[in-house]
Give the backbone structure.
Amino acid sequence: MTVPSTHTERTLTDWLAQRVAEYLRTPPSEIDPAVPLAQYGLDSVAALSLCGDVEDAFGVQIDPTAAWDYPTVRALAGHLLSRLEATP
């Protein structure tokens, strides 16, 4: 999957929603960025895999609990953006 060269909360939200949708086997349009991931049934295995996807795509390591610490796609995107901005 191609990652945008300029990161914004919107591009990260879209990217994360697409990844979550793939794990849940649902269209990305059905992922509301404000709904807690747990309400979609995202399990711990998928959450850990999502963290791995973030690390692979963006080159930043995030805690394996990030999907629970930042429970919505929007919150996770904001956290990821702050990590990317802090990375040289």
Observations:
- Residues 70 and 79 are 7 Å apart (CA to CA).
- The chain has a mean pLDDT of 90.
- DSSP finds four helices and no strands in the chain.
- The helical segments are 9-24, 44-58, 66-69, 73-86.
